[in-house]
Amino acid sequence: MLEEAGKAVHIAIKRQGSQATARLSGEFDLKAAPAVREQLDGLIDAGLQSIVVDLRGVPFLDSSGLGVLLGRYRRLSERGGTIYLLAAAEGSVRTVLEMSGVRQVMPLLTSESEVPRG
Amino acid sequence: MTQQFELRCPSRPENVGLCRVAVATFTANLGFTLAEIEEIKVAVSEAVSNVVVHAYPGGEGLIELRCEETDDGVAIAVRDEGVGIADVARARQASYSTDPERMGLGFTFMESFSDEFAVETSPGRGTRIDMVKRREAPAEGA
What is the pTM (predicted TM-score) of this model? Predict the structure, then answer.
């Protein structure tokens, strides 16, 4: 548990056509927020229309992380694109996502097979 | 003497995780379940993030975290000496935030994930968040 404190968020990006998958690992909180924001903004600025944010490797998410996701969704939706969230079916990250009501604006999925291919 | 600890640190983003892990370790030792600890971590993270983001505009100041074992759980206090919250009722509304990058869910998570919740704030003098979390399951050996 103590090891988690210093675990910086890591983002692996895979592009395929107009779609990108950003696989996050590490705790997604206030400290991690700027790095994730910068990476996702880079994808939006590059013209990608569909971004899958894979949170299955994220053991912790709070409203700072949620704010980054919602802000990026707003930017991308203004350009006609969308963000898909991938999260484990159970656990605190899923609980936080469900409680936030984020699924009312962004698709919240559990498996990559549910993501429409762009 | 009851089990307790106090942590004082500067209001920097990296200290959100420090406070969160300190409380997680403390509550694990008190016999909270993993699910309960996850909820406590979110609540503490929100309280401490609020201090980092809002309490000291343009600078940094003190975060004081106190945890104390109670008969059936833990009492957690997060205090700062910052600008205070001008309108607490509004700040506690879901989706209200002075920062467009934040969802305004901090207070919602703090309230939802604690059994008792209170805010004490004074403009220019700081804010104190008090949260109580009770154990659902009895502590081992109790």
Answer: 0.91
